[in-house]
Fold each of these.
Amino acid sequence: MAASDLLKGVISKFRLNPTQTAAVFAFFDTKVSDPTTILTEETISYYVSQDPAIQTIFDTRFAGNKELRDAGKPELSYSSYITREQEFKSDLRDAGFPPGFYDTEADVAKLISGETSRQELQDRAKAAYVVVKQADPVIVSELKRLYSLGDGDLAAYFLDPTRAVDAFGKRLTGQDLLRRTAAAQIGAQAQTQAGIGLSAAQAESIQTSGFSASDAQQKFADIGAQQELFNPLQGEQAITQEQQIGGTFGTNAEARKAIAARRRSRQAAFETGGGFATTQGASALGTVGQ
């Protein structure tokens, strides 16, 4: 029995192309003369490391391992690498992406070399799904505006661990990306409901305060409906956009009091026939601060 026959059961799992497989079989036929030799993954890895040409074949197939090795980090065993590939592809399918989406060997190699855990990929996939599959143009626009993203591949921004970094160059985790996506959804509601362009800090503050996109939709609709109340009449102080947001969302007690005081003042003027006695003005006397 030739060494290549013994290798078939192991090497076939590595999914090398036919040319690579033939080269590896030929190599081991010259290295292992005893047909009873048991070729474990560790044995194969040792022999591979002794021949530059064969090492190149394995580095091409297991590119993530080469990146780890070049960075001085531990490599995965061949079987662990293949298992990770299968898990990543399965997780992308479960997230709703079709076969062929960010699941090539090169794509997976980036995830492996980036030491991306399975949980982190699942988080990244959820965030990417909002942008790529739901494809709400307002959310995409807000994501680009808030975080200064270009028109390149947004999906890769979420899934490639080498692409997503903060302003200081720190790598963003899957949870970071989920928060950014949620902030973009909130920013989209601010734009749509009230014509307000939030900063990234404002959108993230609302998100971390526990408000969802649906919560934001109602709150910003309230803000949009009360612009007559917020616009100052003669002798009134302006209620800033920041106060409008903080008072309506209940995250700024002083702003909430200011809005309530403005409402009471306008209501009193309306009831006594003052300058605010218009139907439109009366309709702006909403519920914030009552």
Amino acid sequence: MLNEQQYQQLLKPLNPARVAKRSQAGRNLSYLEAWDVKAHLNRIFGFLNWSADVLTADIAFEDKNEKGQWNVGYKVVLCLHINGASYTEAAVGSATLPQRGEAHDMAVKTAESDALKRAAINLGTQFGLSLYDNGSTKDVIGRTLDRDTVSQEAGEPAPPVTDTSDAVPDSEGAEAWIGQMKTAIDSKDVSGLLEIKKAMTKEKVTENVYQGVTLAKWLDKAIAAVGKEKN
């Protein structure tokens, strides 16, 4: 079971300094590196209180390209064990290198690292779960009900039920953008919503927040809603 310090640490926002970024297929991605995940597992749970077992490592493909380099891919299934809990995830890693052995080695390492990161995401914000919310570093868990039960059994009062979205104040000007979206929704104006999207992108306010949700997400929901009504 988690001690109180570990539990509170898992509910903290993600330190932006830990987040790495890269561009892929025209998109900017935010992620945690494998070494950082391992370091944080040690920080929170201790050196001897977690382990990761590779359950399977199967070759997915192997071929040589026109330059004589080896293209190798592996699928790895990994299980992360922490305090009696287990999280199992799979990932495929690939490598292209001149030496066949090095290509195999790098492909397996990449798959293992990705599978470990996916397994650790089950531990919440500190291990990258919030990054799936448009790269946000804000905590996305808030509280867990099993912890309330433990507190009550110990004779401690349970914390009051709160809406965690209220913890994030609305960004300045966000309500005005929401108003424009509502007007376009009422008139079923998809083109108007797309114009709002262009304007928000130009003003760099897509990640601004209204009622705990980014304006980009509000706009996506608006476009989807109008599209369904038209169909």
